[in-house]
């Protein structure tokens, strides 16, 4: 009994010193005396109890630590030695420091109140797919190390938990077929051992001196924050010394391949469904000040259900305020707006809307609208169809140095319906709103979705949640494409090289067919 009293006496002296040096702020003396009385009362109760000394001391130490944190927080005190994660977020701020060595008592006390954790709980906690297969024994380990479900989880602990499951590791994925290769990356078809689902593995080569290409950095930084049904999902990132591997959801083909398979004659109804999904994904990006800057059929992926998703954000970038520092070497030539072709680097979301108009025309006719081979040729094709701009149609164009240098003939605008007879009056109106010379006059993606052209899809498509598929709306489904490839469309009819073309190139869509797609990848290789 004397030894117990001696130990508690020394313990009490220690905490007296702790309290004496605790920064409790102005008026803290009264609070300090109250806390001293509480400690004395707990010590006396512990002396009378028959519980082991270690347990009593540990629980008392834990309670005093919690009291100390509460008082400091109430007094607005911020401690300078808060543990910070590598991502700049403190574990204390996240409500846990469970990825550090913890008190066994704290773990025991916390988990005594935990309900049994299920796979569904972990999937929701870590935002995992529902069909994921967790490693054996992971439920129990997660239950011991994770903070209670009513408390936030630190980023560092979340990363550690994902790593234990298998994310961020090359061995989690099986390479199947090589899909394509680009300047910086090679894309493989693969399979995830965690879900048994197909994935697209985009391997970006890392140069020893240069590191990761800026396109890869942009793609990762933007995609990790873009969660939408019409934007390709980035599942995982794997970083090794030699390469950076991005793991995407696998989609069967891109829009260019889809049009090729249709013999370049798509159902007009399907054109409307694909265009609406393109506008949905783009409106979501633009609301978050993200410009895609490289819209083309090869960067629009499609799965078997008909869901269209924006991909390849390597040229995309976030734009929060107007700036004049952007490059005009963006967007594949055929889908590049005239203001950028004439050297403008001061642009915003309308840069993407011109490309939407070109893709809309291409789907409805089966051929590119402006297949120029050079910048001058591209402008020449644009002006031949839409008319050579004047001060009335494009304010300030006649003072543009690039425009004056080319000295274009004075073409008169031709009705777009003459080149796309399958388009109806509503579609013609929307196409004209997209293909405006002046960027500020182009319709936005948000407003384009509300155009009367989409009236036949119903009102419900306008109120879908961001992550909800368009095909979740009753009655929305793809129709059979009249030009679906068969023996009527031999391979030789589909091989046709596009370049600069005279006006007779724009004839009825049934007379010409698109070139065979050379894109092998369902995810662009950037």
Q: Are there runs of 5+ residues with pLDDT below 50, and where?
A: 17-27, 49-58, 68-113, 320-326, 487-526
The CATH architecture of the largest domain is Orthogonal Bundle
Number of domains: 3
Q: Helix fraction?
A: 25-40%
Main β-sheet, spatial strand arrangement: 1-2-3-5-4
The largest pleated sheet is described as: 5 strands, antiparallel
CATH topology of the largest domain: Transferase(Phosphotransferase), domain 1
Arithmetic mean pLDDT: 74
Shape: elongated
Structural class: alpha+beta
Overall radius of gyration: 31 Å
* Beta strand %: 5-15%
In CATH, the homologous superfamily of the largest domain goes by the name Transferase(Phosphotransferase) domain 1
State the end-to-end distance. 76 Å
User: What's the level 1 CATH class of the largest domain?
Assistant: Mainly Alpha
Order of secondary-structure elements: HHHHHHHEEEHEEEHHEEEEHHHHHHH
- Tally of alpha and pi helices: 17
Please give the number of β-strands: 10
Describe this structure in a few short sentences:
With about 525 residues, the protein is α+β, with helices and mostly antiparallel strands. The chain has 17 helices and 10 strands. Helix 1 packs antiparallel against helix 2, helix 10 (about 270-285) runs antiparallel to helix 12 and helix 12 packs antiparallel against helix 15 (about 425-435).
Explain how this protein is built.
The protein is of the alpha+beta class and 526 residues long. The protein has three domains: 1-9 and 29-70; 104-165, no CATH class; 253-511, Transferase(Phosphotransferase), domain 1 (Orthogonal Bundle). Helix content is 37%, strand content 10%. The protein is built from 17 helices and ten strands. The strands form three sheets. A five-stranded antiparallel beta sheet has the order 1-2-3-5-4, covered by helices on one side. Strands 6-8-9 form a three-stranded antiparallel beta sheet. Strands 7-10 form a two-stranded antiparallel ribbon. Mean pLDDT is 74; it is low at 17-27, 49-58, 68-113, 320-326 and 487-526.
